[in-house]
Amino acid sequence: MHNDIGVSIVYDGDDYTFMRGCAIRYPIGVLITEVNDFSFDELKPYLLKLKGLQNSYDAKELSETLFELEKTLIKDFNPFIAGFIIEEMTDIIVEYRTQNREQCLDAIKNLNKSQRNNKIFEYIFKDTGFTKFGIDINGELLFTAYYVLAEETSLIKGVYRKLCEDEDYMLELTQFYTKSLEFQHITVHHVFYDGNFHSMYTIRGAMSLLLFELTHILQKEVVIKKCPICGRYFVLDGRSDAIYCNRPYKENKTCRDVGAQIQYNNRLKKT
């Protein structure tokens, strides 16, 4: 892991402020919920449109490519998800390119062997012009990072969903990771803006983000529920009796709108 890589979050004891070009506030619990909601198969079409994929590895060129990718992602996804994806892929790429080359090539070789007939492997490389993981061509390295990110985040999503269903597991996992500091890739800096000092956390890795969220979810007794309309988890926004989330559903209606109509129809049936 590298100290200059990661999403930057200011935490003032209430909400989070995501710092990346501009400051955007998020309630506690929403960041990891956004990661859980994002389907990584949505990312592939954007990668396929990038330029220079067939070029030999060039750090400057690949950095510029990732910058252009983030600008494109922000148009279709929220800024946090776009920033999270770019920082995670950058971290993975840097790890591969800075470690001992012989060991790295051995790891890539073993990864290629182990992933044959793997559906995720097949999906990621289909129609890309590449057939294997690698570190010496921009495209191979980019799709290798994509694969690693998708695999790691898939595991975190499984943990997150279990946490939402089992409060005891949430406390147990938090206690484990707070005792195991090697799992925490979080650094803290103090920044001054808006006339005051703030603690800014740089978080590297989906597991670190999950841990960061967990500690504050427990501290603030944040409630996360599963919406019966769309089946996704959401953070209560002040209404302790909320049943449905406020995400767009269909026909310009939100899940909350649809849920309210269902409840109204049920009441009519009883009269």
Descriptive notes:
- By secondary structure, the protein is an alpha+beta fold.
- Helices cover 53% and strands 15% of the residues.
- The protein has helices at residues 30-37, 44-48, 59-76, 79-98, 101-114, 119-125, 138-165, 167-179, 206-220, 255-270, and strands spanning 7-11, 16-20, 22-26, 186-193, 196-203, 224-226, 233-235, 248-250, 253-254.
- The strands form 3 sheets. It has a 5-stranded antiparallel beta sheet.
- Strand 4 and strand 5 (196-203) form a beta hairpin.
- Helix 1 packs across helix 7, helix 4 (79-98) crosses helix 7 and helix 7 crosses helix 8.
- The longest helix is centred in the middle third of the chain and has 28 residues, at 138-165.
- It is globular, with a radius of gyration of 21 Å.
Query: How would the global form be characterised?
Result: globular
Strand content: 15-25%
Helix content bin: 40-55%
Distance between the termini: 62 Å
Q: Structural class, please?
A: alpha+beta
Separate helix tally: 10
How do the helices and strands follow one another from N- to C-terminus? EEEHHHHHHHHEEHEEEEH
Radius of gyration: 21 Å
Tally of extended strands? 9
Overall pLDDT, averaged? 88
Unreliable residue stretches: none
Largest sheet: 5 strands, antiparallel
Lateral arrangement of strands in the main beta sheet: 3-2-1-5-4
